[in-house]
Amino acid sequence: MAIRFFCLFLICGAVRADFPALATRDEVTTEDVHSQLLKLREDVRLLKESYHQVVVEAAAQTQQRDEIGKHEMEIQGLKKIVARLEERLEALQAEKREQMKPPKVSNSTAVAARSCEELRRSNESVESGMYWIDPDGHGTGDAPIHVSCNMTTGSTLIPHDSEEPTDVGQCWDAGCYSRPIQYNATMRQMIALLELSSDCTQTVQYDCKIAPLEFNGESQSWWTDRHGVRRNDFTGGNSTQSKCQCALDNSCLDRKLQCNCNALSPIETTDTGKLVSSFDERKLPNRKLI
């Protein structure tokens, strides 16, 4: 909001009226008197206009002062609201920091559940959100891990540092780019969680422009499983073939290909895949994208 200030200068001075010297009685004529009267009337008119202008400007200045005062009161009110909101924000942040603290595993009765499903079974009223769990067991192994729990399904989500898109730039050779995935959990805890679960899935998305996942029968991109073994599949569980979700849905740009990106389209397209790890085939988590 911009407030413009005006300064009013009232200049006071002597009003001067120039009157010609009165003529002698013998010299005064009707024309002289009429001329002097007209001049006096003009002087009076000018004085009235000047006075009116001064009154108008003074009124405008008074109104402006009133507006400024009103704005200042509004600003003070907003400052009080901001102060209250800042206090509330600080309280919420303190509460969140307290919630983020791991449970004590010694000298305390607080014991983390081994999985979100176990936590849900112990308390059916618990809501979905971030919780500490200890898949390898209380008092042994690694420290508890902070995970996202879906209390509707009892599923556990482990966050990592590669959830947002990453631009790899121009990369022409097979396997020319690699990105290790850092999880918010140790490998020991993730393997313990997998052994408690009936299955585990991980979704991969690949956006491309003339960047195939497979070219002339050779894989250009792959991933490594928890054992460090190279995996070419992006869905379906076949580690020897690069296959994407569109192949399973029969919706690839070129129905003869297994992935949209293999069509070498100059227009950006996308491939997705769901990596699956069952109790019999333990390959997740994904250690590295290449």
TrEMBL record:
It comes from the Eukaryota. One of its GO terms (cellular component) is extracellular region. Residues 85-239 form the Fibrillar collagen NC1 domain. It is found in: Secreted. Residues 1-17 form the signal peptide. This is Fibrillar collagen NC1 domain-containing protein. Residues 97-117 are annotated as: Disordered. The keyword Signal applies. Keywords: Collagen, Secreted, Signal. It holds the Pfam family COLFI. The lineage of its organism: Eukaryota, Metazoa, Ecdysozoa, Arthropoda, Crustacea. It comes from Daphnia pulex (Water flea). The keyword Transmembrane helix does not apply. One of its GO terms (molecular function) is extracellular matrix structural constituent. SMART domains: COLFI (SM00038). InterPro entries: Fib_collagen_C (IPR000885), Fibrinogen-like_C (IPR036056).
